[in-house]
Amino acid sequence: VNFTEWDGMIRLLFNRKNKTLRSVLLTKSTIKLLDENIRTQRALNSSNNSMMDDEEKMSQQIIEEVVAMEQWKDKRASKLDLDDFLALLAEFNKRGVHFA
């Protein structure tokens, strides 16, 4: 686990600790940050052309997909344990969203 990325996600989620994951991740500033991170990650991994061609699927849609999953629907950061955070980070990384 990349500690910088882990730290970035945890800081975002505990910014307002009693908010749901969806409401914390769908703020305008967070969406802007994750859009920039996605573009940077795609530029660094230029060998992955399929991800660059899929430019219309940006962070807001990806966040909606992830937090709509049953295991994170209506969850709050203060109620999750370490394994839940690791699974959440892995799910975002699998979809190309990085928090660092």
What structural category characterises the helix and strand content?
A: mainly alpha
- Terminal Cα separation, in Å? 12 Å
Share of helix among residues? 55-70%
Oligomer: single chain
In DSSP terms (H or I, runs of 4 or more residues), the helix count works out at: 6
Low-pLDDT stretches: none
**Morphology call:** globular
Mean pLDDT: 85
- Measured on Cα atoms, how large is the radius of gyration? 13 Å
Q: Give the SSE order as H and E letters.
A: HHHHHH
Characterize the biggest β-sheet: none
Describe the structure.
There is one protein chain. The protein is mainly α. 60% of the residues lie in helices and 0% in strands. The chain is built from 6 helices and no strands. The longest helix has 17 residues, at 28-44.
Q: What is the gist of this entry?
A:
This protein is an all-alpha fold and 100 residues long. The chain is built from six helices and no strands.
